[in-house]
């Protein structure tokens, strides 16, 4: 790889995107980053057969190169490599932040506390995925500081340390991310007021993906009832822009609520609405009849199977 990095440094000083899958601290990689004149996107991805050093911005040549390029970088992707959240502040013009915590790498809550103090005024896309714990209480302050331009928010964790804080998370997004177009994350069945506030405040909201907020978010799960949360949509007095709803794997809902929601969408003159849920629900002929009826009417586009790991 060092030879390839050296060759690219000489031949390609105008790269817009660089993605590194065999990250190691080398002069050749540092130079490849440093010579770029218009670098907009950089990604560091864990290689399954390698142990990677932390991605530090201090006391190493890679960090120095990243700091030199930080004002031009608009997309930062870090997958499976340790990175101190306090260093995000260097990327003042960042528009997309994509963090995937996977493999043997994980963070304690204390290591992520600086996330609440980071200021990224241009941020539009926030993606946070962990195969270990996520800590919901860390996100509200982050969204308070960085929410004004956020359009897309995804928060997925295989385990949630504090599932009871889902309402605080959604309330923070409703208050500070009014330009939101897409949200994917956890919710409690009792977070009716918080979801109502999100839909009313975030008038550009087009896509919702909701999964139950619980300690363990994978494997066989007890079904939870989505009926009360579905009422938030059914009881809307104004047309909303929502065009896609995904309720992940362990929700259930009643036939009557499903029918009421479809009639509400018809009243709103929704066309080709994308609705994703457990397809086993359609084994009930009543559900299947209503789904087919509203597909034929053009209200529903299709019913899509959705798995949490997607």
From TrEMBL:
Record Gene3D superfamilies: Ribonuclease Inhibitor
Descriptive protein name: Uncharacterized protein
Organism listed in the record: Rhizophagus irregularis
Upper classification of the organism: Eukaryota, Fungi, Fungi incertae sedis, Mucoromycota, Glomeromycotina
């Amino acid at each position: 790889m060092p030879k390839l990095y050296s060759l690219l440094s000489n031949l390609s000083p105008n790269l817009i995107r660089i993605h590194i899958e065999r990250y190691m601290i080398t002069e050749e990689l540092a130079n490849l980053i440093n010579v770029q004149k218009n670098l907009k996107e950089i990604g560091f991805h864990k290689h399954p057969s390698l142990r990677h050093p932390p991605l530090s911005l201090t006391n190493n040549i890679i960090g120095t190169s990243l700091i030199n390029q930080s004002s031009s970088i608009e997309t930062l992707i870090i997958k499976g490599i340790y990175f101190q959240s306090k260093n995000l502040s260097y990327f003042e013009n960042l528009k997309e932040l994509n963090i995937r915590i996977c493999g043997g790498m994980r963070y304690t809550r204390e290591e992520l506390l600086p996330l609440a103090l980071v200021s990224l005024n241009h941020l539009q896309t926030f993606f946070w995925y962990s195969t270990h714990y996520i800590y919901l209480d860390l996100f509200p302050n982050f969204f308070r500081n960085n929410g004004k331009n956020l359009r897309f928010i995804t928060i997925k964790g295989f385990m949630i340390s504090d599932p009871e804080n889902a309402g605080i998370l959604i309330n923070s997004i409703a208050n500070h991310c009014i330009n939101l177009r897409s949200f994917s994350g956890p919710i409690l069945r009792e977070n009716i007021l918080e979801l109502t506030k999100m839909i009313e405040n975030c008038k550009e909201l087009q896509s919702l993906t909701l999964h139950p907020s619980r300690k363990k978010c994978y494997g066989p799960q007890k079904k939870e009832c989505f009926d009360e949360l579905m009422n938030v949509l059914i009881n809307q007095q104004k047309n909303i822009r929502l065009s896609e709803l995904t309720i992940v794997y362990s929700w259930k809902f009643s036939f009557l609520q499903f029918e009421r929601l479809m009639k509400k969408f018809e009243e709103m003159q929704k066309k080709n609405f994308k609705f994703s849920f457990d397809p086993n629900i359609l084994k009930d002929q009543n559900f299947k009849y209503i789904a087919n009826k509203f597909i034929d009417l053009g209200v529903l586009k299709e019913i899509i199977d959705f798995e949490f790991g997607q």
